[in-house]
Every structure is written in structure tokens, then in C-alpha cells.
Amino acid sequence: MALRCGIVGLPNVGKSTLFNALSSAGAESANYPFCTIEPNVGIVPVPDERLWKLAELAGSASVVPATIEFVDIAGLVAGASKGEGLGNQFLAHIREVDAILHVVRCFEDENVVHVAGSVDPARDIEIIETELLLKDLESIERRLERTARQAKGGDKKLRAEVAFYERLRDHVSEGRPVRTFEVRDDDEAAWLKGLFLLSTKPVLYVANVAEGDLPDGNAYVDVVREIAAREGAGVVVVSADLEAQIAELPPEERAEFLAAAGLERSGLERLIRAAYALLGLITFFTVGPKESRAWTIRRGTRAPAAAGEIHSDFERGFIRAETIKYEDYVRYGSEARAREAGAMRAEGKEYVVQDGDVILFRFNV
Question: How is domain 300-363 classified at the CATH fold level?
Fold first, then answer.
């Protein structure tokens, strides 16, 4: 599965600069609102040093990393839920992503205009959150009105559905995102899923700071952290300008550049790690002389479903998953030696794949 993250934020917070750095897709980045009208899409390999180590040990001719898709979505302003600015396009594009990377301006720069005239992370976050909630409220009220009409006949389940929509409407009306709403049973989960609400998307706040405020941030970032803590969201501190500089360097010079800046990992790597954690994603590997490849699955996925990520036939005809822990593969240096040492396990249909598993699937169709 490919992870798809939408990068959102008010105009001129550094969205497109960050997107350009992450994807090298060349999105226009200008100092005025709405320079990104249609979403730019960049497919980026997921940095994972384990894959390259496995490929080295196996002598793989080809190395295929997992990928993450970044979508740079047009900046919006207050009133987007009613179509102001580029609101309608913005809100439609958000529906199509797995997670929202909300870029928040946490730097002062008189040369970069702020759409609201000043730097205020709490206000900026509230503007975007409010627009999402208003759009969700509109969707909930439409569904409530329709279901209430159907429930007039006295159907017990329809009345329960009406009560659910009323509870959900009240929750959103209080300014709380749907992702903090608690469903009580499977029926409610199904009703909620059918609404395709915007504020159900998990959010990772990307605090964009000046290079001098790395790695820990500043007082503006502290405000973002407080908001994220209340919502159960994550926060990553980056400097979009620094990431742009890193993107221009040859790969072999990037580690030295990061070290000079006092950083262990680039913003890209920290963003991806945080996004994986937010969505509960893990990586397993297939390794051989022809190819070593990383595969992304959700935590808790059983072996047959993981096999299906490679090909549907693997899942349909699943027999077993011959599995080696990454650490054991490295310790013994090859699949054959790991097998001889008893470190390869034959796992069945109920096995839950773990992060870092190196797997050979046996199947028959």
C-alpha cells in the first residue's frame, strides 16, 4: 500500500517550499496566495537503511524501496467551506488522502507576507480546522435530515441512526474534530465511515521554523505542541528552507550537511517516520539476488493479507510465510545461514507480520 499524505496550510506558510524539497517535483513556490491551485503530487522513496543492508548481504541486482505520496494542496482562507479562495478544490482534495500534514508557520520574516498579517500558530490552525469542521457539519446535517425523514415510519434502527447523527452533530458543533469522536458499536462505525468526513483524517502538524530554531523549535512550536497534545496529533519540527538546501546536495554530502546543522536525520525522514507511526504502518521485506524490496502494511496485518500486497495470487494460494527477523538476517549474513541456525520460522495464516520481518511466501494456485 502506498501512503498518501496531503500537505495543507494557509498561504505562505512554506507548504510548497517543503513539498519541493521533499519531492523535487518543482512546484511553483511564490510569495502570494494560491500559487498552488491544482495539487502537485510527488512520489518519494521511504528512507530505510535496513533495506540497503539486506540488499548488500543478498547481493541484490535491484533495490525497490517503499514509497510515500505527497500531495501539495492549494492554500485556503477563512470561508473555504463556502467556496472562498480555492476552498472547494481544497476540501475535495483532502478527502482523497490518508493523512493530513498541516504546515504551520512558526517563523518571523518580514519579507514573507502572512495572509492574516501576523504569525499566530493557534489562530492559523483554528482557521483550517474550522473550515474542515464547517464542511463536515454540512455533511452531517444533510444526512441527519434525510435519515430523520426515513425514521418517521418508526423503524427502530433508523431512530438509532438519527440519534447517532445528532450526537455527532453536537460534537462537531462544539469545535471538536471527528477523529476525537467515540463510536459505541459496529453500526456507529459503519455510519461514520459512510459520511467520508474531512476531520476524521489523522493530522501531523509540521512546525516550519527558521534554521536557527532547529531541532527543538521555539515558543510558537510550543503552542502547536499544546494543541496537538489535546487532539492526540503528532508534531514534527522542520525548516522548509533548510530542507530545500539539502535537496540540492548530492546524496553523499547530505549526512555531513545535517551533522553540521546539528541534526541526525533530515526533515523528510522524520516526517515519514512520524506519518508511519500516526497511521500505524510498518515495513516488511522480500530479499533475494534479483531484488530486495520494502513493503508497507498496517500494523496487525496477518501473513496472507501481507502476501496479497505482493500479488493477489500469493494471498489466494497462501501456504506459509518463511520468516526471519531483520536482526537475525544481519547476524547470520544470509537466508541460508539463518535457516541453518534455526532463525527462519514457518508461520501460518494467523501470523501477524512484524516490522522488519524478512519473508519468503510459499503459495499454490
Answer: Ubiquitin-like (UB roll) (3.10.20)
